[in-house]
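Sharing a chain and its predicted structure for anyone who wants a worked example. Both blocks are below, sequence first, tokens second.
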Amino acid sequence: MQHVRTSGPGDQVAALDVAAVSHSYGSKRALNDVSFSIAPASFTVLLGLNGAGKTTLFSLISHLYDTRRGSIRIFGHDVSRASGEALRRVGIVFQARTLDLDLSVHQNLSYHAALHGIGGREARQRIAALLDIVDMPGRQHDKARSLSGGQMRRIEIARALLHRPSLLLLDEATVGLDIQSRAGILATIRRLVETEGIGVLWATHLIDEVDDGDHVVVLRQGELVAKGKVADVVRTSGGGSIRDAFSRLSRIEATGTAELSP
């Protein structure tokens, strides 16, 4: 793994800069003038109920959709104009499972390594090291279909890290997992921020995945309704905790439609 290099205190290029981004599906507005940035070597939680726009935003950042209004930059590289330079700095774990169940762990990972021009001995070394990092040592030859949901997610995280990105995006990475698996995966990602200097954007609707020291970005029906450190968001919302703040910002008390934790 490699550490993020910056040009000095106060002169950092944002790991991710989202500026005035809007997106529509036909006449339906999915995102409306969303702006925020995250710093290198930081953990930012993208909070929002289902339908808030989190997955649309991830699709724009990863260039699955083209950004037609606003701009997205990854370490200063515009995703639309210099997608290759931008995206080689990003690892992504999407909400949907994407392992080939008929292949082994090593085959899944080595195929992805080859897509990034990593082959042979270098790929084997990186795979072995990453399996240790995600607490799956010695599982190279296991078939993907033999793994639990949490184990599959760990392999997907290892795959996202193979090309040594400086920014990691995870969209509802713990959905459907038990409490112990969720906690273990979160701990692994937070450790990467501390030890490897990776910037992380962690999308979730589960409020218990937020720590007091995190930065948060809150979306509601495509609108950015809050951003900043947890304590600042709590204070400005008038709530007593981040759970209260999220309820108020997402208008959960009025609709009664949300699940804040399993």
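Comments welcome. The first strand starts at residue 16 and ends at 25.
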